[in-house]
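Q: Structure tokens for this one, please.
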Amino acid sequence: ASYRLQGDRLGFRFPERPDPALPLVIDPVLTFSTYSGSNADNFGFTATYDESGHLYGGGIAFDPGYPTTLGAWQGAFAGGTIDIALTKFSPDGSSLIWSTYLGGALGNETPHSLVVNSNDELFVLGTSGASDFPTSAGCYDASFTSSAPMNFGIGYGYSHPNGVDIVMTHLSVGGDALIGSTYLGGSAADGVNNNAQLAFNYGDSFRGEIALDAQERPVVATSTQSSDMPTTPGAPQGSFGGGQQDAYFFRMDAGLTALLWATYHGGSGDDSGYGVQFDGSGNILVTGGSTSIDMPLSGSPWAGSHHGGVDGYVLRYSPTGNALTGSTFVGTTAYDQCYLVQLNTADEVFIVGQSEGPYPVTPGKYVNPGSAQFIHKFTNDLSTSLWSTVIGTGNGTVDISPSAFLVSDCGQIYLSGWGGVVNANALAVNSTTIGLPVTPDAFQS
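A: Here is the predicted structure, written as tokens:
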């Protein structure tokens, strides 16, 4: 079969007429599904892919027992309660290309986000409370910045007795060498979202995203409680805004030897940074949540005022990051947050988030009325709403925690998430997947 475009409708063309007596399958229903094979408790946190279709998984492993491959960078569990565990699968899931631990012996590590460059080299964004996390020669910062003990407001089975820093690692294509690895931190907790109002879902403490710009340099959206994080000359916000935590955005070189751009973003309340992507001109789009009624905005915001409680936000920075060129709050008078951002080929901005208020719905769009997950489309400068809708069970409370979001080159929107009783360990006490709408041919209905 081949694709066929007729006007604005995409379909398929067949070289021969299909047999009507047989089931017609064009796309695989499921490429692969497998277990990690670990003998130790382990939890998946993040995943990505490369252009050849390999799947990369990042999670945490408690103790030895996670399967590693011969020649892997770190073949054994280092210590502490948990280490990062990283695995590259073949495209069909039949084999491990490589698999490794990543961590120090004197603390705990967590992966938050993964991305792969054009050379099939993996970048890992994470956090570490270990003073001996592996770093590379000439890295930006080889030293852990200890701080006060950090205990999560939600129980995850471990803590950071000596504080926590951001870590970033650039692994070789074979997973057997560090191309770069560095700390980045200040005098308080960095890289974690540990605010009671903003960590709404179980696992929201580990939000944050890494993406690669056109020169394949990593750009990160994350959060910090440190008032002394490094910022660069010309940064739109060079100092901590206040409250318990701010959003923090930065760019490094591919070797992780230099901090090329870094800025705070936040007001007198609490602010978090979750998602980051780029438009076709290299502008940086970021999103997150905020309780700050005075969070800095610029341009011509679609919503220039905070609605109360927790609001989502979207920002657009210039390609250098030194100018905030677009911004808007997103929300209602109830709880709202934006988690992930995407752009289409026209550089229009899409966000996905949660809202327990009467979120606006554009007439004529697919909708599950009364639902608490939203998708919103904006113009590139964030001044105009193009459409918005809500999806879910319609019970008025959060069903799922968004975990991945994609707008394809053909304009299709893909969203994944998870929900259930585990999410009730946080503030999403009614989280469920029961009653979510499914299509007649769904893989699992």
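A few notes: The mean pLDDT is 96. The chain has no helices and 24 strands.
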